[in-house]
Amino acid sequence: MITPMTKYSFILLNGEQQDLLEKLQELGLVDITRDAKGIDDQSRELWSQLELIDGLVHGLENAKVPEGTIPERIDGDIVRLAGGMLMRYAEDTDAIKNLNKERDAILVWGNYDPEILRQLQEAGVPVHFHCVSKKAFKPEWEQEYALSIVAEEKNRIWFVAAGDDDLPGELPKPQMSLEQKEKEIREREAHYQHLMQRLASAKERIPELKELRSQTFEKLDLHLAGCAAVPAAEDTLVTLVGYAPEECQESVTAALDASGVFYLKDAAQVEDNPPITFRNNKFVKMFETLTDMYGRPAYDGFDPTPFISVFFLLFFAFCMGDAGYGLILVLVGLLLKKVPSFKDMAGLVVTLGIGTVVIGFFFHTFFSMDISQWEVFAPIKGIFLPAQIAGNDATMVLALAVGILHICLAMVVKTIHETRTKGFAASLGTWGWTLLVVGGVTVAAFALAGVLDAALTKWIVIVLGVVSALGIFVFNDPKRNKLANIGMGLWDTYNMITGLVGDVLSYIRLYALGLAGSMLGMAFNDMGVMILGDSPNIGKWIGFLLLIIFGHTLNIAMCALGAFVHPLRLNFLEFFKNAGYEANGRAYNPLKKSLNKQ
User: Fold this and answer.
1) pLDDT at residue 229, rounded to an integer
2) If 9 and its partner were Cys, which of 19, 58, 264, 450 is the partner (CB 3.0–4.6 Å)?
3) Does domain 1-33+228-279+589-598 have CATH number 3.40.605.10?
4) Distance, CA of 327 to CA of 443 (rounded, Å)
């Protein structure tokens, strides 16, 4: 549910707002209305500092220092030192790489003296370096030119020739000998090793950089909050507006009273556009991320997360539809708890896995195998979903039934919400449609179950039809002309009929996705059995296991993707549309110290 908010209006002398904002930042409960437009020189400078520090942190974390390197203690400004070391680290890494390439290029020529080559050049006897394929090399060149073969490989020949020649494959003349190049590499590597010692010390100071990054972020956040100050009384006074959850009112007022600042306190109103925060239990809270993907509701709206939590879990399990796949998801979720960056998602993954296990067992499917045929489950075979319901595929019927329930619930939610916000008289049109659709579905369900006889069903349908028609065609807008209401009711009827049919049929995707995953898994199982054949051996068993592991891993990944996207669509489109949900709110973002953040 949406947490009620308290609005705090502050009035203080211009220049004193910084002290107030720092106190509120320490408290960590008040959301200050921020200026989303202005970016002044100070905020630009703070943002540049934040980007620089963040880049240094990532650079030091990614710098590869050999194990066992003894850090060389460095003191001073870590930002300046780290920036210089990372620059030299990049330079030395590239330089050593290029020097090794150059060394490899002259390695074939051996350790000659460049000075002798220079003297020969001055004496009019230039020396040329060549490399050609063995097919291109002609033996007669050794008689025609002062030529000496230096090295041979399988397909190439390196040789030098003294004097002028027009031989092919001439290479640039090496500028230094192998010994000189190796000396240059040793000097650069020595410099690099010393740099590694200093870099190891800098890596030890990464927590210091992270703390500086947090402090810089807090300064920027504080500055942007201060930009929300609205000058009043010819810039002699400043007003600020903040919001905090109603349940935190005692803590906030105590802190404000202690500060001596003048403030006004009142319950937040819709027109104030207060920030939105939810008050949900642990289970529902896991699904708030999905609500935020669409957007938070307005302050007078409703929290759709409780409905998403139940139906997204159900739809996801429907699409996966395999108890074995559910067990894999549970295992993945437990492993994610050990990864800090994915720890927050672990609970949701485990929950989705458990739901998949339950639905998959009900669908009697385990890694695309039909467990209803296993003797171990023979005593409880009656709890499994039958193959058909009323002559149709049971899974498809169940998917449509759940879809109808989902849409009916959305219409009930819309009716309750509109009645609460607009009043009963202004929501009679919505009441008419809800009575007609939800009432009709309920009567049909009882009639099919044999609870209602034909005569009673007939009279209930007639009464529902008449009452609904009055709301739809006559009283859909009490302030409008009755003829106009009838015309609008006819238009709404056309849209409602075509829309509801399309919405209900959308839920067939739950059946289709589950069927596709099951069929693909069965195909991999059949292929594995074909590999084993009638006389399995170790080689066939290895092939069987590799195929089964690869096939089901691929199938799980594909099924999980579809099981996430399509249930999300059914909630965001079909449910939200029929529930009249609008995402007009903004998230609650209190001014706080980073150490206080959860």
Assistant:
1) 67
2) 264
3) no
4) 39
